[in-house]
């Protein structure tokens, strides 16, 4: 299937011309100012990179190629039920065009073929003479209790051997204008392989019950969509869980370029490191508690709340519990955001999903109660810029309802989804000839001398 690749290729000349004209016409214009506060505050607010696939507005939330999440739910084709499928989002991110049903189906089939080939080859090798070690051997060599995110990131590195970009670069025969073609192949391979590897990590290291555990290479059902197959490989075959997976993998895919996982992938990729190296770097950032690990932290915190509150979810007791979290020096996980200044639309669509599929779930009642209480408690601190919930405040409660109760796996699912956004931009960055990143840093002494 080269329909998507051909469409990207056909857009490259006009995109490059557009960027060139932008540079020629406005190259000397200023896009903002940098204050010492911004420099010392994690570069917050500095406009410093081009990132085409999505744009975050502090008040409207995320837009994927201009479309909000409700618009994605309405417009993207390929739906099995109500939720969009991530294949359709991937097509949109790469081409800036809502695909047709046929285009989505062709991309789905392509990804599933890549996934099936990968899983079959590894399984055959496992059963055979072991002449060639594979990523699952690398994972088996890690202690079972290694954090699942560390395993996923290590798996990316272990699969680098398969990089077509790496091989072509080493051959010395690849022109600069062809880089993107091999980045594309690696990116699609990686997007297809990650759910297989993640499902393996889940069944080997996360589940506790012997009956659900496995260290076999998962079996891919290439007739399914990517999300449904992921759910099935993990052992969850209900239509509701597959639908949740479609929503989950779609909404976590991209959140413009400055967040830690997207920026780390982008930065490392700018050195012409291949997608396996680049996305592994992104995953390492996603594994941090202030970023993707927050979804794991949220569920731990909700469980703590359940124990402490003993079913009493009255406003007063819940408020005291939240205040005690702050008093103990911790952040309230799942609340706050570096850029957003409203309830995350990704939280809202997950809430809608819960209202439709599991309104009576006890933990969902707690999450709803927290939504009423936490913002005021955070506002009262006088320092939190955004007291509203982010995506991570809601994802765990949905997953646990459908049986995915092992919260140390949640960030891995985030990572599987994030590959779609980060790797789409990586393809475009090489296609459009973006420069290697090299911002200037200064010492605090340099600042003092400048202003004293
Ligand atoms: N609970 C307690 N305090 C919080 C808070 C929260 N949820 N959110 C922000 N604050 C505090 C900060 O720690 C900071 O305190 P300090 O001045 O004493 O260091 C102060 O409020 C100002 O911070 P801010 O400008 O509002 O936020 P930020 O841009 O520095 O950080 C974020 C953003 C997400 C790291 C922060 O809100 C946070 O720690 N939230 C909890 C963790 C979380 O949910 N992360 C997931 C984010 C989404 C994602 O990437 N998946």
TrEMBL record:
Q: Name one GO molecular function term.
A: acyltransferase activity, acyl groups converted into alkyl on transfer
Please indicate if the UniProt record lists Transferase as a keyword: yes
What residue ranges carry the coiled-coil annotation? none
Looking at the record's lineage, which domain of life comes first? Answer: Eukaryota
**Keywords for the protein's UniProt record, in alphabetical order:** Transferase
Cellular component GO terms held in the UniProt record: mitochondrial matrix
Q: Does the keyword Amino-acid biosynthesis apply?
A: no
- According to the record, the signal peptide region is none
Instruction: State the Gene Ontology BP annotations.
Output: carbohydrate metabolic process; tricarboxylic acid cycle
> Which family is annotated?
Belongs to the citrate synthase family.
Mind telling me what this protein is named? Citrate synthase
Provenance organism: Bathycoccus prasinos
Q: What is the lineage of its organism?
A: Eukaryota, Viridiplantae, Chlorophyta, Mamiellophyceae, Mamiellales
């Amino acid at each position: 299937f080269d329909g998507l690749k051909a469409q990207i290729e056909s857009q490259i000349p006009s995109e490059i011309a557009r960027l060139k004209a932008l540079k020629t016409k406005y190259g000397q214009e200023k896009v903002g100012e940098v204050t010492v506060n911004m420099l010392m505050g994690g570069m917050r607010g500095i406009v410093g990179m081009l990132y085409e696939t999505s744009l975050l507005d502090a008040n409207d939330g995320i837009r994927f190629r201009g479309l909000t999440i409700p618009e994605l739910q309405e417009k993207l084709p390929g739906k099995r039920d109500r939720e969009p499928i991530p294949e359709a989002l991937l097509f949109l991110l790469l081409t800036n065009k809502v695909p047709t049903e046929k285009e989505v189906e062709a991309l789905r089939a392509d990804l599933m073929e890549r996934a099936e080939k990968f899983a079959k080859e590894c399984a055959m090798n496992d059963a055979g003479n072991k002449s060639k070690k594979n990523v699952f051997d690398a994972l088996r060599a890690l202690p079972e209790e290694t954090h699942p995110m560390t395993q996923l990131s290590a798996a990316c590195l272990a699969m680098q051997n398969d990089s077509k970009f790496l091989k072509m670069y080493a051959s010395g025969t690849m022109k600069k204008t062809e880089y993107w073609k091999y980045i594309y192949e690696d990116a699609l391979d990686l997007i297809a392989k990650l759910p297989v590897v993640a499902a393996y990590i889940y069944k080997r290291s996360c589940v506790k019950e012997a009956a659900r555990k496995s260290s076999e290479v998962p079996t891919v059902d290439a007739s399914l969509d990517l999300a449904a197959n992921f759910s099935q490989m993990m052992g969850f075959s209900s239509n509701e869980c597959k639908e949740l997976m479609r929503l989950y993998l779609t909404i976590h895919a991209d959140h413009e370029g400055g967040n830690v996982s997207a920026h780390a992938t982008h930065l490392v990729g700018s050195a012409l490191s291949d997608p396996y190296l680049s996305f592994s770097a992104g995953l390492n950032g996603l594994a941090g508690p202030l970023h993707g690990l927050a979804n794991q932290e949220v569920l731990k915190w909700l469980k703590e709340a359940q124990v402490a509150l003993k079913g009493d979810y009255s406003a007063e007791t819940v408020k005291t519990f939240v205040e005690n979290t702050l008093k103990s020096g911790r952040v309230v996980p799942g609340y706050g955001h570096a850029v957003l200044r409203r309830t995350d639309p990704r939280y809202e669509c997950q809430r809608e999903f819960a209202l439709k599929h599991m309104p009576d779930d006890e933990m969902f009642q707690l999450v709803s109660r927290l939504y009423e209480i936490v913002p005021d408690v955070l506002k009262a601190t006088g320092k939190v810029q955004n007291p509203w919930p982010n995506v991570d405040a809601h994802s765990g409660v949905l997953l646990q309802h459908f049986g995915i109760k092992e919260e140390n796996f949640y960030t891995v699912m985030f990572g599987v989804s994030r590959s779609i956004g980060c790797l789409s931009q990586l393809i475009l960055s090489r296609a459009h000839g973006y420069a290697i990143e090299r911002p200037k840093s200064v010492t605090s002494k340099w600042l003092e001398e400048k202003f004293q």
